[in-house]
Amino acid sequence: MSPVVESFVAHFGEMGSRWGINRTVGQVYALLFVSPQPLNADEIGETLGISRSNTSISIKELEAWQLVRLTRTPGDRREYYSTLGSVWDIFKAVAAERRRREVEPTLTMLRQSLLEPGANAADRYALERMREMYELAEMSNNWFEELQDLSPESLLQLMSLGRKVQKLLAVKDRATAPLRKKPR
């Protein structure tokens, strides 16, 4: 590995634990991401200096996240791995999997909790707070679904708007404020 690739792979390994994956999974992903051609498990393990079993476990985890693509070469029995095409495809895959693993179970738990009647003032307060959390999470989840349908070009345009959207909303709020004031 060149020094620049080695640095990238090492960084992804360190960041992996912060992102909820282990170090080796992060390293395998980073190596595949910067590799100009698909790699087989032996090449991955040899390049990273990890065991065949650790390589296999890491690939399985990346497959579960739908972050790697399996290909075969005619006449070769080995399986070759590469990452998804564009960084946008990768971003969408990671976001979708995090949503499936983290957001959806939380929404399910909140929905079930909100079906319970509040037995006392403390429970009613807790349920109201959970309702607020549910409403925000549900709104964010729905927004994410809409974002998933956008093309990379549209996503890039949306992201580049940044603070311009805040300014537009501030102008709207100032313009509609007189309409929202209650008559005395």
Summarize the structure.
With 184 residues, the chain is mostly helical.
Give the N-terminus to C-terminus distance in angstroms: 74 Å
Separate helix tally: 8
**Residue fraction in strands:** 5-15%
Query: Looking at the chains present, what oligomeric state does this protein adopt?
Result: single chain
* Unreliable stretches covering 5 or more consecutive residues: none
Give the helix level as a range of percent: over 70%
pLDDT averaged over residues: 90
Q: What does the main sheet amount to?
A: 3 strands, antiparallel
Shape: elongated
User: Helices and strands: which structural class?
Assistant: mainly alpha
Spatial extent as radius of gyration: 23 Å
Number of strands: 3
Q: How are strands sequenced across the largest beta sheet?
A: 1-3-2
Order of helices and strands: HHEHHEEHHHH
Characterization of this structure:
It contains 8 helices and 3 strands, in the order ααβααββαααα. The protein has 184 residues and is mostly helical. A 3-stranded antiparallel sheet has the order 1-3-2. A hairpin with a 6-residue loop joins strand 2 (68-72) and strand 3. It is elongated. The model has no long low-confidence stretch (mean pLDDT 90).
Describe the structure using short key phrases.
mainly alpha; 184 residues; 3 strands; single chain; 8 helices; three-stranded antiparallel beta sheet
Q: What is this structure's SSE topology?
A:
Elements: H1 3-19, H2 23-34, E1 39-40, H3 41-48, H4 52-64, E2 68-72, E3 79-83, H5 87-114, H6 121-148, H7 152-161, H8 163-180
Antiparallel strand pairs: 1-3, 2-3
Helix pairs in contact: 1-2, 2-4, 3-4, 5-6
